[in-house]
C-alpha cells in the first residue's frame, strides 16, 4: 500500500516542470502594452530624460508584434525572445514593406523594476552585430532605450 502514495508523489513531482511557465512566454506577457522612452543613448552620448521624452520614441507590443515609433515614423516587426541568454536576446524581423522587409535586428532586452531596456542596431541591409551590453560607442550604430509602461489616461 505504501508504494501507491510514493508512486503518486513521484508522478506529481515529474509534472511540476510542465506546469511552470516558459520564460519566453512570461517575458512576452510582461512586454505587452505601450512603453514611453525615458532614457536614450546613441553614439556613446546619453540624452537627458527630457530629451528622451521629447524624441517621441515609443514601443508598442501586441502579441508577437512590436511597433517602434520615433520622430513620427512607425516601424513594425515580429519578435522572438530568448531569455536563456545573458543578456536576454530579442530578434525583431521587419514587417514593413520596403527595402528592409524581412531584415532581422539581433538585439538585447531587459525587464527589471517595471522598466524595459532595449539595445537595438540601426536598420540596414547588413544589421550590426547583436549588442553585447546596454551601452553604445561613438563609432557604432546602436541605440539603447529605457522605457516605462505607459500609464492609463
Give an account of the 3D structure:
- By secondary structure, the chain is α+β, with helices and mostly antiparallel strands.
- Helices cover 21% and strands 42% of the residues.
- It has 3 helices and 9 strands, in the order ααββαβββββββ.
- It has helices at residues 3-19, 23-31, 49-54, and strands spanning 33-42, 45-46, 58-62, 65-70, 73-82, 88-94, 104-112, 115-121, 142-149.
- The longest helix is centred in the N-terminal third of the chain and has 17 residues, at 3-19.
- The model has no long low-confidence stretch (mean pLDDT 86).
Summarize the topology.
Blueprint: H1 3-19, H2 23-31, E1 33-42, E2 45-46, H3 49-54, E3 58-62, E4 65-70, E5 73-82, E6 88-94, E7 104-112, E8 115-121, E9 142-149
Antiparallel strand pairs: 1-2, 1-3, 1-9, 3-4, 4-5, 5-6, 6-7, 7-8, 8-9
Amino acid at each position: 500500500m505504501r508504494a501507491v502514495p510514493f508512486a503518486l508523489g513521484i508522478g506529481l513531482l515529474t509534472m511540476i516542470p510542465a506546469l511552470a511557465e516558459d520564460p519566453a512566454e512570461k517575458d512576452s506577457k510582461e512586454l505587452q502594452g505601450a512603453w514611453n522612452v525615458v532614457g536614450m543613448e546613441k553614439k556613446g552620448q546619453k540624452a537627458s530624460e527630457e530629451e528622451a521624452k521629447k524624441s517621441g520614441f515609443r514601443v508598442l507590443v501586441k502579441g508577437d508584434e512590436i511597433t517602434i515609433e520615433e520622430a513620427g515614423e512607425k516601424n513594425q516587426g515580429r519578435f522572438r525572445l530568448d531569455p536563456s541568454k545573458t543578456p536576454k536576446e530579442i530578434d525583431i524581423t521587419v514587417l514593413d514593406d520596403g527595402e528592409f522587409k524581412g531584415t532581422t535586428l539581433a538585439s538585447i532586452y531587459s525587464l527589471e523594476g517595471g522598466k524595459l531596456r532595449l539595445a537595438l542596431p540601426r536598420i540596414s541591409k547588413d544589421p550590426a552585430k547583436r549588442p553585447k551590453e546596454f551601452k553604445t560607442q561613438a563609432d557604432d550604430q546602436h541605440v539603447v532605450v529605457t522605457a516605462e509602461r505607459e500609464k492609463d489616461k
